[in-house]
Design goal:
Structural class: alpha/beta
Low-confidence stretches: none
CATH superfamily of the largest domain: Luciferase-like domain
Family: Belongs to the NtaA/SnaA/DszA monooxygenase family.
Keywords: Flavoprotein, FMN, Monooxygenase, Oxidoreductase
CATH topology of the largest domain: TIM Barrel
Mean pLDDT: 89
CATH class of the largest domain: Alpha Beta
Protein name: NtaA/DmoA family FMN-dependent monooxygenase
Radius of gyration: 22 Å
CATH architecture of the largest domain: Alpha-Beta Barrel
Distance between the termini: 44 Å
Pfam families: Bac_luciferase
Order of helices and strands: EHEEEHEHEHHEEEHEHEEHHEHHEHEHHH
Largest sheet: 10 strands, parallel
Enzyme class: oxidoreductase
Strand order of the largest sheet: 11-10-9-6-5-2-1-15-12-14
Number of strands: 15
Number of helices: 15
Strand content: 5-15%
Length: 440
């Protein structure tokens, strides 16, 4: 049963598939794990997602291999083929599935980015999506002519203007010229190809800062979040969707889709045991120390991963790790981890496992379907982007076992009713900017 009353139409669940291979999500040692480079891996996951009637297939992107202690540490998304190239190939072997690529708005240019996504939208007949990300670190910038030129405070102002220019380019198509002169870009010309089938490819954004939330409310169609509890999800949704009206947007114009993992079992106990074993494989002793070193900023190789946390204070700003997300106040985080370790009697490795887990749905297929439904009916999310732990077969059992139960509950489609990603998401085709009527 859903959480809606009998005379209400239940909210529909949106689902997307994230190709694994980021950080320690993937269990590479599993014998079922295959290449993150071979096209057959991408094809397998995409075909599975389409068989499950998912909205879209999502590829992350990286622009430089991350380093730790001056050495490349792990496989990362930057070790894969370039995202739009892969998705153009997947357009030929899928029919309805949306195709979402991550492209950085800091180290690219809006005209060329708009042209590439317009091409993908045409080749896929209206299934393209762009996950807009930003970067402020000079380490990544060393791969580009401008280097680390962009101040952190400016990254969203550039991204907002970047998206605005791209939409002007899409609206121009081959029929009219456009001209833009702004703080970051001066661009004049036309697209070349006709306006994309969706008008604008779907724009996805992932950012939780106040600036990120404001950017999502003003410019995004989908926001990719990490809020893990029902209460946190409802608060985030209320905050972001509460900002839409000032941009002339309705509540349904933005879909909130947290990234989640899942583990299924025949019983709740079996699922929990499988989940614990997966986490032990994801957080090896080496990875546990590396994660701790990212917080403490010093070499901790002399510490036992199965022993207690260090009693020394962190040393911020050492540059021990390059290309990784900033963790905030390291002193506060270290004390929080120490307190957790003391209270629960956890070792270094156990503490890292406890504190770095993603939101996960763990249980029988029926329990997982019910929990997903609960989140959506409660307004904590519009759906989820699933991040399996195996490449490329990790989505198979979800499609086979959970999707039919969501369909039985009347909250997930039994067939595609449209041909474009916007139609899957229930998003309107935007009018060209030169045809829009200003609101009063």
């Amino acid at each position: 049963m859903t959480s809606t009353s009998s005379d209400e139409t239940p909210r529909q669940v949106h689902l997307a598939a994230h190709f694994p291979g980021v950080n320690n999500t993937t269990v590479w040692a599993d014998p079922r794990s295959r290449s993150q480079i071979d096209f057959t891996s991408f094809e397998h996951l995409a075909r599975t997602a389409e068989r499950g009637l998912f909205d879209f297939f999502f590829l992350a992107e990286g622009l430089r291999l991350r380093e730790h202690k001056g050495r490349i540490h792990d496989l990362d998304v930057v070790g894969r083929p370039e995202s739009i190239t892969v998705l153009n190939a997947l357009a030929a072997v899928t029919d309805r599935l949306g195709l979402a690529a991550t492209v950085n708005a800091t180290f690219n240019e809006p005209y060329e980015t708009a042209r590439r996504f317009a091409t993908l939208d045409h080749l896929s007949r209206g299934r393209a999506a762009w996950n807009v990300v930003t970067s402020s670190d000079a380490f990544t910038g060393e791969n580009f002519r401008r280097g680390g030129f962009l101040d952190r405070a400016d990254r969203y102002t550039r991204a907002a203007e970047f998206v605005d220019v791209a939409r002007q380019v899409w609206d121009a198509g081959a029929e009219r010229a456009f001209r833009h002169a702004g703080q970051h870009f001066t661009v004049e010309g036309d697209l070349g190809p006709a306006r994309p089938p969706q008008g604008h490819p779907v724009v996805i954004q992932a950012g939780d800062s106040d600036e990120g939330r404001e950017f999502a409310a003003s410019a995004a169609d989908v926001i990719f979040t990490r809020h893990g509890t029902l209460e946190a999800g409802r608060a985030f949704s209320a905050d972001v969707k509460g900002r839409l009206a000032r941009y002339g947007r309705a509540q349904g114009d933005l879909k909130i889709m947290p990234g989640v993992t899942f583990v299924l079992g025949d019983t709740a106990e079996e699922a929990q045991e499988k989940a614990a074993e997966i986490r032990r494989q994801q957080v090896s002793p080496q990875n546990a120390l590396l994660t701790l070193e990212q917080v403490w900023g010093v070499d901790l190789s002399a510490y036992d991963p199965d022993g207690p946390l260090p009693d020394i204070d962190p040393v911020p700003g050492t540059g021990l790790s390059q290309g990784r997300t900033h963790r905030g106040d390291v002193f506060e985080l270290a004390e929080k981890w120490r307190a957790l370790s003391r209270d629960k009697g956890l070792s270094i490795r156990q503490t890292v496992i406890e504190t770095t887990r993603r939101q996960s749905f763990i249980g029988t297929p029926a329990a997982v379907a019910a929990e997903i439904d609960t989140f959506v009916q409660a307004g904590a999310a519009d759906g989820f982007i699933l991040v399996p732990h195996l490449t490329p077969g990790g989505l198979d059992e979800f499609v086979d076992q959970v999707v039919p139960l969501l369909q039985e509950r009347g909250v997930f489609r039994t067939e595609y009713t449209g041909t474009t990603l916007r139609s899957h998401l229930g998003l309107p085709v935007p009018a060209p900017c030169h045809e829009r009527i200003p609101t009063a």
